[in-house]
Design goal:
single chain, 250 residues, alpha+beta, Creatine Amidinohydrolase, five-stranded antiparallel β-sheet, 15 strands, globular
Length: 250
């Protein structure tokens, strides 16, 4: 069931989104050769808790950290580790959520570690732009399929593939709510977008096949062919005046 939010609830979600977004920016600044993903997770948790908020992911379904940190061919749900040391040329997808006053904000970004190869920069650029193509279509009266189609069309036109096994979602008092928001679809199909809906739009775009596999830890999800993947996400409110990004930088 899709839960529509009031103006007050969206304002509360904007506060949660601001904390989540700032935590993500701090994490991105920490992405440097020689830094462990464990240290980046520590930075995220410390910042969120200092704001009086709770890391949305910590303990969620048993997840052991405050941020998902996914490097190179890891698509999503990478578990931070003291043993995973970033190196020059890595691309690092960081997914952060914060809960404040009963509501979540959820966002992700892929950061370069030092200088990266042209192909790595290209997939980051395409994934980021596909996110904003999706957001452009997050308009009241449209349908979820319009968002997914916009993401898919942009990415596939540039010879990338769209992950199908994992999708975006509604956000609110729960981290994951209805509706599901795939990054592929048919225009005019799916749940109709209404003012008061809040959704996470989060393209996961692969350099090669769209297929993925989950490792034995039951979290870490990698590309089936070992090629690069990138992930970008914003929490977006549907309003009568167009989409409003609740995790946009100040």
């Amino acid at each position: 069931m899709v839960i529509l939010k009031t103006t007050r609830e969206i304002a509360l979600m904007r506060e949660a989104g601001r904390i989540s977004q700032r935590a993500l920016l701090l994490a991105g600044k920490a992405v440097e050769p020689g830094v462990s993903t464990f240290e980046i997770d520590r930075i995220v948790r410390e910042y969120i808790e200092k704001q009086g908020a709770t890391p949305s992911f910590l303990g969620y379904g048993g997840f052991p950290a405050s941020a998902c940190i996914s490097v190179n061919n890891v698509v999503i749900h990478g578990i931070p580790s003291k043993k995973q040391i970033l190196k020059e040329g890595d691309i690092v997808s960081i997914d952060v959520g914060a809960k404040l006053n009963g509501y979540h904000g959820d966002n992700a970004w892929t950061f370069p570690c030092g200088s990266v190869f042209e192909e790595a920069q290209a997939i980051m650029d395409v994934t980021k732009e596909s996110l904003f193509e999706g957001i452009k279509n997050a308009v009241a009266g449209n349908r979820v399929g319009d968002i997914g189609h916009a993401v898919q069309k942009y990415a596939e036109a540039r010879s990338y593939s769209v992950v199908r096994d994992f999708v975006g979602h509604g956000v609110g008092a729960k981290l994951h709510e209805d509706p599901s928001v795939p990054n592929y679809g048919t225009p005019g199909r799916g749940v109709r977008l209404l003012p008061g809906m809040v959704i996470a739009i989060e393209p996961m775009i692969n350099q090669g096949t769209h297929r993925v596999r989950v490792l034995d830890d039951n979290w870490t999800t990698v590309t089936a062919d070992g090629k690069l993947s990138a992930h970008f996400e914003h929490t977006v409110a549907i309003t009568s005046n167009g989409p409003v990004i609740l995790t946009m930088p100040d």
